[in-house]
TrEMBL record:
<dbReference type="Pfam" id="PF00685">
    <property type="entry name" value="Sulfotransfer_1"/>
</dbReference>
<keyword id="KW-0808">Transferase</keyword>
<dbReference type="InterPro" id="IPR027417">
    <property type="entry name" value="P-loop_NTPase"/>
</dbReference>
<feature type="domain" description="Sulfotransferase">
    <location>
        <begin position="43"/>
        <end position="210"/>
    </location>
</feature>
<comment type="similarity">
    <text>Belongs to the sulfotransferase 1 family.</text>
</comment>
<protein>
    <submittedName>
        <fullName>Estrogen sulfotransferase</fullName>
    </submittedName>
</protein>
<dbReference type="InterPro" id="IPR000863">
    <property type="entry name" value="Sulfotransferase_dom"/>
</dbReference>
<dbReference type="GO" id="GO:0008146">
    <property type="term" value="F:sulfotransferase activity"/>
</dbReference>
């Protein structure tokens, strides 16, 4: 048996909380999370939905540049205000959102506020890359209290669907099954990386004729 490592004992579990059977980060407000689930989508709403660490921020910025005619955000505050993370901010941030804008969520289809008139872009990623990125994110964020956490510990949580925001495979499958809905655009991180220009144009076309680039 190998000798025990000196130093701190690794934290086997990041700091999460259970809200109505759903695991979310420990610092999130339960009332905000519950209100996000009950949000009533508007016909002009656009949702950017992902499992964590699947290209969320990249896609948010692409969508924002399309909606803002290429103008970058002037500050991080403006970015978070105009692309609110609904599970963290609560429903009011969506209600107060200046349109056109995009609402970010990390939930499976059956948990995401749905309207056939709103639009939803879902981006998936290779689960191996997602897991590795999610581990590094969790380990680097003091709020998770997982500074000494090992990848092997996190991998077990990931593969068993025990990280925050549920199970990768369940979430991705739930949106894959809706990929043919006219108001759902399903894309992968790998597609966007391999042919960025082509997929940005497809996203623009999905957002509406006013954003479509004429050939």
């Amino acid at each position: 048996m190998p000798p025990e490592k000196e130093g701190k004992c690794p934290s086997k579990m990041p700091w999460y909380q259970e809200i109505d059977g759903w695991r979310i980060p420990g610092l999130f407000c339960p009332e905000a999370f519950r209100s996000a689930l009950s949000y009533k989508p508007r016909p002009d709403d656009l949702f950017v939905v992902t499992f964590p660490k699947c290209g969320t921020t990249w896609l948010q910025n692409i969508v924002a540049c399309i909606l803002r005619d290429g103008r970058p955000f002037e500050s991080a505050l403006q970015f978070f205000t105009e692309t609110p993370f609904l599970e963290m901010t609560g429903a009011k941030a969506g209600e107060d959102l200046k349109r056109p804008g995009a609402i970010k969520m990390h939930l499976p289809f059956y948990k995401t506020p749905w309207s056939p008139k709103a639009k939803y872009i879902y981006i998936a990623r290779n689960p191996k890359d997602c897991c590795v990125s999610f581990y590094h994110f969790t380990e680097s964020m003091p709020a998770y209290r997982f500074e000494d956490g090992e990848f092997d510990d996190f991998f077990e949580l990931f593969i068993n669907g025990e990280t925050d925001f549920g199970e990768y495979f369940d979430t991705t499958l739930s949106w894959w099954e809706r990929r043919d809905e006219p108001n759902v655009f399903f894309i992968t991180y790998e597609q966007l990386k391999k042919d960025t220009k082509s997929y940005i144009l497809k996203i623009a076309e999905f957002l509406g004729t006013k954003y479509k680039v004429s050939s």
